[in-house]
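Appendix B. One record, verbatim.
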Amino acid sequence: MTLKELELFYALCEDSHVSRLSRKLELSQSAISLALKSLEKKLEEPLFDRFGKKLVLNERGRIFKEKTYENYLSLRDAENFFKKDKISGVLNIASSKTIGNFILPKIVYDYLLMYENTTIKKKITNSASIIQMVKDGKLDMGFIEIQCKDAELIKEVLGEDELIVVSCDEELNNEVYLDELYSKKWILREKGSGTRDVFIKEISDVTTSLDVFMEYTDFEEIKMLLEKNPEIITCISKVAVLKELKTKQLKEIKLKNINIKRNFYCIYHKQKYKSKLFNSFKTFVKKSF
């Protein structure tokens, strides 16, 4: 059934004089008759009795109107809503933990304040998982920290991030060579995370392997361990430890000859339909970064 067929059916319920309705709606009589016949064919029974040229709503027509009219009005309301307010709908996004925990919450909050008819469903996971979910069509948009050269995806740079080495060990010099830190207990993010992948790639010219004592997935977990155990060391986004650096609970250890920068990216599928909501949110995120 089409909305047009239903619209004409309800109009005939109010005025079953086809020629008069034709003039009122500025449609031909044949167009009205064809729409009614099409609707009745789909329902497999007539909705009006034909007495000569006169149409009379029958018992099936009355129950059909009773059962469908409220739903029809709801559909028309939805149609009018979308015509008037294009920036509305539900957006599925996911972000890496650094972006999702320390950058995106404020951006999403500010956006929802402006567009109350939108819903943004947000997940936090590692960059590798986000890339796969975008490829599979499970996400409208992803926010990651690693290079992505997949031909199916479009990648846009949002901003730059700095990875730093941190510890609470006051005896460590503020600037050292990486090999001076081999005796420390290195704790890194899980495999597949952007932070870990970028760090390992950057130090690959200096060392072929780094003895990873333990892996972590939660920022609060690693910060708690770092603050209480001077033997522990990690590489982490500077954004994630700004507060701890300011209060001197942790200290930055600069690596000689190694400066680790990376970009934050927005990714989406090449074949993704770019609604006004999609484009509006993407533009807002880029400006906010």
